[in-house]
Amino acid sequence: MLRDSLPSNIRRTQTDAMPTYVELANSSYLDFASWRTNADPPSGGTPLSTFSINVALVLDRANDPTDLLASNWATRQAALADQGAIWSTYGADPTAYTNVVSALADLHITTYDIGGTADAQYISSPESRTIWVNVTQDNFTTLFGPGATLMTVDVAAPSPGTGTETVRYWNGNLSLPAELAANGVTGLWFDTAEFGQYPDYDPPPTTGVTLPQGWQSPGNSAGPALVAANPQTIAQDYYNFPLTGSLWDPTSPDAVTTGAIGLVEPGVGTALPGDPTGSGFQAAIDAYRTSMGISTSANVISVAGGGQEYPTPSSPTAFDPAGERSLDVGVVTAINPQSTLVVYAGSGTANGAHGNGFTAYQSAFWDTINNPAVITSSFNYASLSAPGSPFLIASNGLYVDAALRNISVFNDAGDGGSGETFGNGLPNASSTHNSPYAVIVGGTSISTASAAQGDSTLSDLVADANAGDLPTLWQLIAGGLTQMPAGADANRLVETVWNRYYVDGTAIANPRGTGYLHNNTGASGVDTSQPAPAYQVDYGLAPITSDPTHQPGRGIPDVSANAGGNMLYVVPNAEMTANQNDDGTSAATPLWATLASQINAVFSDQGLPNLGYMNDLLYTAGVIAPASFSDITIGNSTSSFLYGGSYTSDGVDITPTGYGYSAASGYDLVTGLGTPNGVLLARALTEIAHSQIYFGSVPDLIDSNGTGGWTSGTAQTLLLQTSATASATVAVHTGSDITEASSTAHGPYAWTSQLAQQSLQSDFDGALLALFDGQGQGNLAQAIVANGDTVSVTFNGGGTVAAQANLSTSSGFADFFSDASNSVRLAQAVAVAETANGADDVNVVVRMRQVAGADLSLMLYKVDDYNGTIGGLAPDQAGYAAAAAARAYAVLGGGTTIAGPGDGNAGQAQITGVDAGDLIAMQLTNVTNGDTFWAFSQANEAVGGEHIAHLWNYGANTWGWEDLAGGGDRDFNDLVVQLDFTSTAGHGWLV
Ligand SMILES: [Ca+2]
Ligand SMILES: [Ca+2]
Ligand SMILES: [Ca+2]
User: Fold this and answer.
1) Total-model pTM
2) 477 C-alpha to ligand 3 centroid (Å)
3) Cα(668) to centroid of ligand 1, in Å?
4) 850 CA distance to ligand 3 centroid (A)?
5) Would you state the pLDDT for residue 510?
6) How far is the CA of 974 from the centre of ligand 2 (A)?
């Protein structure tokens, strides 16, 4: 360098000269944690005379991974398998990184853990693009520019007359030395608690809303009737987790080992009172396991390079990190007793560290020793950082790192409701805790039948359910009810939004005395700092905030699970000395993490890689296998507010502004896609994974033409299924053909894809299904189309939108929506054998549910194309039946036909000798009257010159038959049939 060649006296002058600085846009104090405040920035006070703060400097990536992360899961997995190539491509440019380290040395700024090990206090590495440094009162301006001053000022506390709060802030934007900016330092984070959320103390500009008295949302007030359940009971009995029973007995030859789960527990780690190293943690967690009926010891690894400490909350209602930790470890170890727990304390307290959550996430994501494939956390840091700020750049990049490390991250939505405990009058969602590369988990409340009877907010619902009220039962079944309510004492009756807000006069409180400023309902709504992720757009969503500005953004949560209310979790207390009952989205989140870890075990058993970043797969499962989720439709999370006013909450005067969100049919901004049906979700995800990896060349039903239109993906016979809430004029245009698909209204309880798939569960009560038998579907027609034909649908003269087709077209169907409840489904009449690992000669599971009185029989046979042709014979040609019989698959146990299970029953069989890519068609025989029916209507009976169609598609590889000639009652549930091509792989845990 030129400088080194100068005489020593000049070099010293050059070295000590003030470098030039580059201002960082959007780097004000309010941009760090108080974006969307309507307060004026703080001012005045005095310079802070003594401080020491550790700061993350984050460099840009050498290359942009956006395209890789936007590719499908299989493409991502293929790339992520080579982690060396990933990080030489998507880490920092090594030269730029070295330049920054060198420049910091020239500036005499202390750095931490450059090139350190994975259990170092801080993560400073070219791969993480991060360099941790220390600044004090002596060199704050050296790093952040000559104008940077850290100030301290006392401001009035939110409630008049309650004193003052001390705020630490800096004026204006921060700057960086030009050498750092030139080498791509664009991200910053502070390992400190100095810079909190700055509240708006101005008088409220609106009069707000009047809240109803009492409980604000149903299903959270069972009182003494509430249930306290062991976590594994909640997982197995209410969420149908896939791995159960002897699989968890380590002495069993069937024993399964689930992978390590990382728990982000900033500061506290495994510390116990008086025991900062957590030396007593092993005994404490083993005592909990014993109380849960688990006889083996936990495998616990503590990663706390900067130490850890047991905190003391400032008040009984203050956030308690140790309680969070105990909740996390309890839920994880009880549900997945063979998963190693890796507990991350983050930077701890050594060297001026503060154990900020960012540092714990970073140590978890970069733990290349333990490599947990699933990481769960309920900790946020600096909730509202501004878009474009160096703080949000750093935070967003952290979760991209996790995706590139092939980690599945589960973050709780948070427990602050629609207001996010931020008093700006708006609905808020954290900008730092809702990454598109993390699964965001919201909260629900499960009510058993007995709990519901003790809950006055559910009394009407209980009465209606017990009286057999069909609309009520229909709603409850969509929410996961599988038994008649009268006999459902031990089972779920209803699952509602978790919401503990209670209003008494003008006081917002609950039995714990807390309200809008504490943890009482799931955070929800829309993170307006980012656009809706592609998987939400592909699901047909366009999330907007509920306030009058209707801001777009990322909808949260993605999914949800029980968070308390009428069902609490039995977990260790904060000190780990005894058990207690606890709640929160902090409980729902580790539950989801254990499910992902179980599914990873299934994936491994079937020869698949880990799930990694897989949000898109969840949304795809929601479309093609909707029974993967129970749909939550009851409750709200409303808690927006301004400071000041005539209500009180948490000892503070506030004005509720009423902007919130409610659960509703389908995806909603309180509970996301819903709560898991673990086995059905696992089947769906394995099916999607094998399909993407091994069957990418199989034609899709339809292909986008790039301008909003669609073309047929192959030569095929399409079922045209109209669903209409009133008589509708409908036409399906394929190439130059127009097929009439007009329809009368379907029956009010015509079966949905979700119900048809739910009904295939053997423990679903046939008597409950019988209440909804005989409900006619809309019109069913058929079209034979050529490869490349244009495809469109008109509904009552208007156009339709295939809003979810991107997610379903590779599974053989696509819905063209006129609106949410009026649509035409185009579906293939055959299944493609997308077998596990593309294997040949495999057994395939055939699941059935019969809701008809006749004796039925099913034959599955191989065809040559999507029109059902066999050796040149079309389905309506002479000799087809004999040709089909000659192509019939053998049934395990003998013969080539499968007997229906009988009225009301579920059944299951396997066919054998199925090769990858086989096209499989079905024939139904009504044994009672001798009629036979085909998937291709031209082969069926004609009425008035029209051939009658008998097969209705209910999602991926699932169909329902109508078993009577002439069309019968057209309920298409007489025999529901599902082909499962992947579950026999490996140990067959999902069969
Ligand atoms: Ca819902
Ligand atoms: Ca029928
Ligand atoms: Ca029926």
Assistant:
1) 0.97
2) 18
3) 5
4) 8
5) 87
6) 5
> Residue 874 C-alpha to ligand 2 middle, in angstroms?
26
How many Å apart are CA 988 and CA 981, to the nearest integer? 11
Q: In angstroms, how far is CA 611 from the centroid of its own chain?
A: 13
Q: How far is the CA of 751 from the centre of ligand 2 (A)?
A: 12
Residue 971 C-alpha to ligand 2 middle, in angstroms?
5
970 alpha carbon to ligand 3 midpoint, in Å?
Answer: 8
Ligand 3: centre distance to CA 603 (Å): 36
Residue 201: the pLDDT is: 60
Q: Extract the tokens encoding 331.
A: 């839920």
DSSP E strands in 563-694: the ranges are 567-572, 579-582, 629-630, 641-649, 652-656, 675-676
Those residues whose C-beta lies under 8 Å from the C-beta of residue 878, and which sit 6 or more positions away, are none
Q: How far apart are CA 336 and CA 291, in angstroms?
A: 15
**Which ligand is closest to the CA of 497, given by its number?**
1
pLDDT in tens, 524-553: 999 999 999 999 999 999 999 999 999 999
Measured in Å, residue 629 CA sits from the centre of ligand 3 at: 24
3 state SS for 325-392: HHHHHHHHHHHCCCCCEEEECCCCCHHHCCCCHHHHHHHHHCCCCCCCCEEEECCCCCCECCCCCHHH
Quote the CA–CA distance of 710 and 824 in Å, as a whole number.
14
Rounded to whole angstroms, the Cα distance separating 548 from 555 reads: 17
CA angle 543, 544, 550 (to 5 degrees): 165
CA of 263 to the centre of ligand 1 (A): 28
Each residue of 731-763: pLDDT tens digit?
Answer: 999 999 999 999 999 999 999 999 999 999 999
State the ligand closest to the CA atom of 852. 3
8 A C-beta contact, residue 135 and residue 53:
yes
Closest ligand to C-alpha of residue 555 is: 1
Residue 962 CA to ligand 2 center (angstroms) comes to 5
Ligand 3 centroid to Cα of residue 924, in Å, is 14
Ligand nearest to C-alpha 773: 3
For residue 290, the Cα-to-chain-centroid distance in whole angstroms is 31
Low-confidence ranges of the chain (pLDDT < 50): 1-15
| Cross-strand partners of 706 | none
Q: Please list, residue by residue across 455-467, b when 16 or more beta carbons sit within 10 angstroms of its beta carbon and e when fewer do.
A: bebbeebbebbbe
CB atoms within 10 A of CB 380: 20
Virtual torsion, Cα 684, 686, 692, 693, nearest 10 deg: -170
CA distance 711 to 825: 15
